[in-house]
UniProtKB/TrEMBL annotation:
SUPFAM superfamilies: FAD/NAD(P)-binding domain. GO terms for molecular function: flavin adenine dinucleotide binding; monooxygenase activity. The keyword Oxidoreductase applies. Signal peptide: none annotated. Coiled coil: none annotated. This is Putative flavoprotein involved in K+ transport. The keyword Oxidoreductase applies.
Amino acid sequence: MLVDNVSPMPNSRVNIPVVIIGAGQAGLSASWYLCRQGVEHVVLERHTRFHAWKNQRWDSFCLVTPNWQCRLPGFPYQGDDPEGFMLKDEIVDYVEAFADSFDAPLREGITVTRVAQNADGRFEVDTDDGLWSAEHVIVASGGYDRPITPPYAADLDPSIAHLHTRDYRSPADIPEGKCLVVGTGQSGVQLMEDLRIAGRDVALAVGPAPRSPRMYRGRDATDWLHEMGYYERTIDQQPDPKATEAKTNHYMSGRDGGHEIDLRKFALDGLQLYGSVTGMKGSTITFAPDLEKNLDDADDSYIGIRKMIDAYIDEKGIEAPAEPPFEKAWRPGSEITEVDADEEGITSILWCIGFRPDYGWLHVDCLDGTGRPIHHRGVCDVDGVYFLGLGWLHTWGSGRFLGVGEDADHVTSCIIRRLGQGSKGRRFG
């Protein structure tokens, strides 16, 4: 590739048709399509490729969706367990093999510090290793830059340790004593289970995350939903697109072959559940009286998915085993709204309440008032700026192995079309 011979040094300037920022599955999917079409480009990565998969996942991490949903461009899952759930090291092997399947013009260890549009309409991409000038910029840096920790966490007794999901690797990272896991998205419930399996003392602050069946009527629920076309529904087809974008993922697990997570059953087995955390001061932790509501709402989501599958089975006349009606295994009594961490033996907090992207380096008018990208299927109103790899960029699978390739195909097709309509961009090959 032409770019292979270009090594920008500080204060140098390299002109190129396309710059991709980020070398995760989204950025390298875009590179795969551009390479196939012979479009000159560069992929800039501040760490190494797939850094998050290698360095920001816990040791027992596994996929929540079945392996068959791994469909990176030209590289679908080819293993012998399509209905299984790859472990962390297997995921790394998969994405590394995808990257090795083509010759991406990748530059690792380069941090983008500023992107701005000049008077000629080109984009100046400043880095700590020189300046690139491009007609098109694909932002594939993901949405996991800044772990969310609420401001009141700073008011908690400093003797109580704080850890975020990005820094957790194994139960050995948690101090002796009880750990309060905050958040019930996929990470929160899985790390709660990880600690319990290790025999650690753990409590869980339950947020408003929904939950999903795992196996239902003879098949994994995700198999049914895929067959029903659920994963093909676009963000524009959702009743409230903004609310859909903001939703937390349904929780379940792929661990040990996959299973549901019903927090009521964990409570019956001795897990202390609280409502949402509302504040911290000294050794005092306060909770909203919303535990029962959050459990009920999660179950409503669970039941709703079952009803969708039931309706589909009935409509298509499919032979499938019946399932007993869902029953709530446990209900909370009076809700606890305040605890003293010292009295409860709480020595650590594990924050599992998500991340925020950091686009402070992006000096282009393509973000809304909350800092979220403004786009339609990754294509911004500002000509030449694109996003990839975000949840619900186009469909449910956009931020996952299932749909990121289709989005990359769409975005790169737009770029190739524009390059062919008078752009001065170069091609190679």
